């Protein structure tokens, strides 16, 4: 209905100019055509360069600074990947010391598959408390780390027909993009 009315009024030059003027107040020219409408040869001496007004420079919007994942969320993600059998993604979450002790990604994947088949399956992990410790020594591997996250974790495991609850203290070491876990191979 409005388009029909506008098409009737477009035949009159006065109304046509009025519509164009009103529409011009609510629309803008594309940035690449902006300068062609801003030059004026009036008042410039012959041969002088015509300077054009330019649209304002856009402000650069920086992406937000990367935020490292919380230690509790990291451990929950690690256990979720274990439950889902996504061991390739778990490998990237291991600390360098743990990766060296496994030897290779294939040995890690094989060891995790054997662990799942032979023992209890992980059902759920729940984070109790999280503390950042300035320095911690792993006595079993004789290594000292700084700014370590110490987590109290409750694991629910399922072994055949019964469920078990196991409480463990987990240590995460800082990395450039978050945390890494010290998941070592089990001693045979």
Q: Can you walk through the features of this model?
A:
There is one protein chain. The chain is built from 7 helices and 4 strands. The chain has a domain at 71-181: Nuclear Transport Factor 2, Chain: A, CATH 3.10.450. It has 188 residues and is an alpha+beta fold. The model has no long low-confidence stretch (mean pLDDT 80). The protein has a 4-stranded antiparallel beta sheet with strand order 1-2-3-4.
For this entry, give a set of tags.
188 residues, alpha+beta, Nuclear Transport Factor 2, Chain: A, 4-stranded antiparallel β-sheet, elongated
What's this entry about, in short?
With 188 residues, this protein is an alpha+beta fold.
Query: How large a portion of the residues is in β-strands, by DSSP E?
Result: 25-35%
Give the CATH class of the domain at 71-181.
Alpha Beta
Outline the low-pLDDT stretches: none
Helix percent reads 25-40%
Q: Mind telling me the CATH superfamily name of the domain at 71-181?
A: NTF2-like, domain 1
- Count of DSSP strands: 4
What secondary-structure arrangement, pairings included, does this model have?
Elements: H1 2-9, H2 13-26, H3 31-34, H4 71-83, H5 87-91, H6 96-102, H7 105-118, E1 121-138, E2 143-159, E3 162-175, E4 178-181
Antiparallel strand pairs: 1-2, 2-3, 3-4
């Amino acid at each position: 209905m409005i388009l029909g009315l506008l098409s009737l009024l477009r035949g009159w030059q006065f109304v046509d100019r009025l519509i164009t003027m009103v529409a011009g107040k609510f629309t803008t020219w594309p940035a690449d055509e902006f300068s062609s409408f801003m030059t004026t040869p009036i008042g410039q001496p012959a041969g002088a360069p015509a300077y054009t007004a330019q649209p304002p420079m856009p402000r650069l919007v920086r992406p937000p600074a990367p935020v490292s994942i919380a230690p509790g969320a990291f451990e929950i993600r690690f256990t979720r990947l274990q439950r889902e059998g996504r061991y390739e993604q778990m490998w990237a979450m291991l600390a360098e010391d743990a990766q060296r002790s496994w030897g290779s990604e294939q040995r890690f994947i094989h060891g995790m598959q054997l662990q799942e088949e032979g023992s209890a399956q992980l059902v759920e992990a729940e984070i109790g408390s999280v503390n950042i410790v300035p320095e911690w020594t792993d006595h079993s591997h004789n290594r000292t780390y700084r700014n370590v996250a110490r987590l109290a974790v409750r694991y629910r495991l399922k072994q055949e027909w019964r469920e078990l609850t196991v409480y463990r203290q987990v240590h995460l070491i800082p990395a450039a993009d978050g945390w890494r876990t010290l998941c070592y191979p089990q001693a045979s």
